[in-house]
Amino acid sequence: MKLSLAAEEVATFYAKMLDHDYTRKGIFQNNFFNDWTKEMTSEERKKIKELGKCNFEEIHKYFGEKHEARKALPKEEKQKLKEEAERIQEKYGYCIIDGHREKIGNFKTEPPGLFRGRGDHPKMGMLKKRVLPEDIIINCSKDSAVPPPPPGHKWKEVRCDNTVTWLASWTENIQGCIKYMMLNPSSKLKGEKDWQKYEVARRLKGVVSKIRSQYRADWKSKEMKKRQRSVALYFIDKLALRAGNEKEEGETADTVGCCSLRVEHITLHPRLDGKENVVEFDFLGKDCIRYCNKVPVEKQVFKNLQLFMENKDPGEDLFDRLSTTTLNKHLQDLMDGLTAKVFRTYNASITLQEQLEALTNEDDNMAAKLLSYNRANRAVAILCNHQRATPKTFEKSMQNLQAKIDAKKDQLADAKAELKRAKADHKTKKDVKSKAAVEKKMKLVERTEEQLAKLNMQATDKEENKQIALGTSKLNYLDPRISVAWCKKFGVPIEKIFNKTQREKFAWAIAMADDDFEF
After folding, report:
1. In this model, does residue 467 exceed pLDDT 80?
2. pTM for this structure?
3. What mean pLDDT, rounded, does the chain reach?
4. 477 tagged catalytic
């Protein structure tokens, strides 16, 4: 049947995602169908009653063909599209701040589509509506030329606020979050903010022993409030948990942090898997990412948890005398600028530094050093619970890599056979030419062995990383100077660790850190 324009557009959003796991989830399907029917005409609503009876294959095929056609464009056409994108970037992608021309991070609003969310978000599948000029607040200087809205439209507001760094903002319709147009991470202002963030975390290094002694002493406090606060701080420090913010009931997903943990989120095991005083965590954290961990804790912490859970129902707060606000106030009293996130940044950075020292061997080849770096980064990602779904292309790329490994093994076997023949030939002839042939074949064997070792390390790295998101901690929690210093110390090109975007973002660190930098 022929759909109205609004209903057809929303149908295309779903059709484009047919081969994605999201469209197989009941909550995604229900939310989509609910929002889709709102865009239909009354006639369409009478006919379309069930999502399961709708066939989106033709639309999916159409967009698939369009995608393939774009990929198959001749080089000249692709160049034209690239030049057009560069022209738009040049026109809209820069601003003047304090007399300096700075790159803008996101100068395009998000297009309409279906909300995905992370983990099992309860709002996945809902319709993200088109952002109109009437939704947008422009922030610019009083003396600057206000960018004109599209014909027939007007901005929601034009203001001049030089206390913030955003250039435009709007409120998205799914969760009511304010979205911002910000400066590019490589900008001077962003770089300074980054540097300050890591300097605060470095300051924590000087007082963390005192803080730990204090919260350990408070485990036996006569005040229940202090006991709860000290155990929560222990979790924030030891497990890099987020503090957690209170939310209005039913407003968003049932996600929690340390302060908002409920009795049902932890299970106490006096003994488990040969370890004593084990706490088993199971809750939804930020972005609906599930946190599952079994951690042996100190005996007094275990006793306190038993006390906190006494006579409480599963749905009651574990730390009923504590809130994020009171915890953050306490942290501020301990050190100026200290928050739960500073603990996270500190523990992530110190873990990377310690792991790099433990894992790196200066005599290793480049592939082994990179594997050591990724393993150190992975230890941080696990600490911070930075997960991802196994990529859809994982199996295929592993098969391709295994094929390369098998081919390289065959090459090595051939090279060794050739070396054996060359040695036998030299034993007979004992001349300069046959000796040179032996040396040449030996070099070929060594080179092929190195290539095979490199491929095997790539396969190991790929397998170990399949469900770990390394990028989040690298961008947000790890002082980049640690990585820069490691690269300089062990002769690893910075390009092997940071891609182009990351090198631009961390230009300040690359310029600042020497090989002896310590966090």
Report:
1. no
2. 0.71
3. 89
4. yes
Single-letter code of the amino acid located at 436:
A
Per residue in 14-53, pLDDT (tens digit) is 999 998 888 999 999 999 999 999 999 999 999 999 999 9
432 to 368, 427, 436, 439: CA distances (angstroms): 36, 12, 6, 11
Residue 55 above 80 pLDDT? yes
Strands 94-97 and 100-103: antiparallel
Compute and round to an integer the Cα radius of gyration of the chain: 29
**Among 99, 87, 257, 114, CA closest to 173:** 114
Tokens of 210: 């005192």
The count of other CB atoms within 10 Å of the CB of residue 202 is: 17
Write the pLDDT tens digit of every residue in 248-287.
434 456 788 898 899 999 999 999 889 999 999 998 887 7
- Side-chain-facing half-sphere of 96: CA atoms under 13 Å: 6
Q: How far apart are the first and last CA of the chain?
A: 64
Residues found in the chain: 519
Is 179 in a helix, a strand, or coil?
strand
Token digits of residue 144: 């600057």
What is the DSSP track for 451-479?
Answer: HHHHHHHHHHHHHHTTTB-HHHHHHHTS-
| Sheet containing 275-284, strands listed edge to edge, beginning at the edge strand earlier in sequence | 266-272, 275-284, 290-296
- Contacting residues for 110 by C-beta, under 8 A, at least 6 apart: 128, 131, 172, 179
Helix (H) or strand (E) holding 191: helix 188-218
Token readout for 212 is 């730990």
